[in-house]
Design a protein that fits this description.
This protein is mainly beta. Helix content is about 5%, strand content about 35%.
């Protein structure tokens, strides 16, 4: 007796919902994920290019309560893209001629000071999930680093390293000190996730001042300092209860 063969559902094509370069591809990709859930499709196919993600969805989850400092926080998280309760799903990007990921998921940085930025991708309760040929970033630039060129008891001045950017009023969270060659981390975080008691002030070309005695007491001239501006950003990409992840 022959067994019946159940045909696999055709893949969901993200191009039917949004294209790289659209002002906001997040809503379209979320619709593609919902379509895969509705039809039972096991693959979502992305085009090559940069998908800009601005809008977000709110997801109630205990996954955000990940350390002692977050106890008591409402268990919900904003995320650009959500994969939830979807087993055996593949998110498949494109590759370039060198075989490297050619699909970039670009989370939005609004440059505003607030507690949490949305995750770029949040995957939960989705066993046998496969993520293939996807790259992730957040823009405009989310983090920065500079050389401490001036320092006194009440403030410090940094000169941005090549390729780094900052802006007047940028926050300083999860700051870390490094030696002058950048190879060795020096001690614990200067600010941790709660940030400093002040914000960066522009002080000329590629120079910024932080008027914070608390931070100034922990650093020295000639050291390198790294930081990001997203406050308690939580997770850029979250993968929880995704057994047999590939």
């Amino acid at each position: 007796m022959m067994k019946s063969i159940i045909p696999e559902h055709p893949p969901v094509l993200v191009r039917d919902y949004t294209s790289p370069g659209d002002t906001d591809s997040a809503a379209g990709i979320r619709r593609a994920i919902l379509e895969a859930q509705r039809t039972g499709a096991r693959t979502i196919v992305f085009e090559a290019g940069r998908y800009l993600l601005r809008s977000s969805a709110n997801h109630r989850t205990e996954g955000i309560v990940h350390d002692a400092g977050s106890q008591g926080v409402e268990p919900q998280k904003d995320t650009h893209l959500l994969v939830y309760n979807l087993g055996d799903l593949t998110l498949r990007g494109a590759v370039n001629k060198s075989g490297e990921p050619a699909t970039m998921l670009v989370g939005w940085n609004d440059r505003k000071r607030h507690g949490f930025l949305p995750s770029i991708l949040w995957c939960e309760n989705s066993p046998r999930l496969t993520l293939s040929n996807l790259a992730f970033t957040r823009e405009p630039a989310f983090s920065s680093a500079g050389l401490i060129v001036d320092h006194d008891a009440g403030s410090l001045t940094v000169e941005l390293l090549p390729g780094c950017t900052a802006w007047d009023g940028m926050g300083i969270y999860c700051a870390n000190r490094f030696d002058a060659n950048g190879e060795n981390l020096l001690g614990e975080s200067v600010t941790y996730g709660n940030g400093a008691d002040a914000f960066w002030e522009a002080a000329g070309t590629n120079r910024f001042i932080l008027s914070s005695p608390t931070v100034a007491a922990k650093v020295h001239s000639g050291e390198l300092l790294s930081w990001h501006q997203g406050a308690q950003t939580d997770f850029q990409v979250y993968l929880g209860h995704c057994d047999d992840l590939r």
